[in-house]
Amino acid sequence: MRSEVAALQRRITAYHEAAHAVIAFRFRLPIDEVALCRTGCLAGYVQFSDVPLMDAVEASLCECTSELEWAVLVGDTERRAMVFLAGALAEAKLFGMPLRSHCCESDLRKCLQLCYALCGYREHLVGTTAMSLPKIDSAEMADRLRRRVQRILAQPNTWRAVTVLAADLEGWGLLTGHDSAETVQWAGRTRNQLALLLPMPRSTKGTKPSRRKGRTSAEAPRSALSIVDCQPQALSCE
Length: 238
Prior knowledge:
Layout: H1 2-26, E1 31-36, E2 44-48, H2 53-58, H3 67-95, H4 105-128, H5 138-154, H6 156-172, E3 174-176, H7 177-188, H8 193-196, H9 202-205, H10 208-211, E4 227-230
Helix pairs in contact: 1-3, 1-6, 3-4, 3-5, 4-5, 6-7
């Protein structure tokens, strides 16, 4: 019974992390790797190749000096927030729920943190510069982005990519960003459900073992907003 529950937890986590990766690819956010963890405090994670622009702003590494730069910052923040929402919404789609928050609190909190940070920075700019910027309601922004991600995941091609990448991740345990992108691109060429049941072509997966040789889940990095993580699931089975 425990092995069945563990297998179910692993599959749910695979969908969770696959959704993060697929939405990141959709918005051209590069990732280094996607992984499922068997030990440690994380059930899985997605590591980005870079950090949100808002992190650089809060660290005083850059400053918006024009409305164009502000628009770029808003766009990057919204895309990052939607990636954080994707995991919980993918699980909700699996369970037929509007939003699944159990064991997804970390991602939802990071999404809200980005929205709050953007709202606070907008107030700072309005008070210290002559820029006229539209008002931002952080709660409304998060809800609007949630609805957008739900619509994206409801698209057949997007959900097919999540399903195929989740199956690949469940089998391998760890995929590089390039491997994940190849799987998503392959899924986009799939035209029917029967094809999803067929083995992956050798040209797509043949090089993956050598790329992950000697790598364990314990080596997974733990940086803050550059990682989308999934806390271990707690499921009951009757």
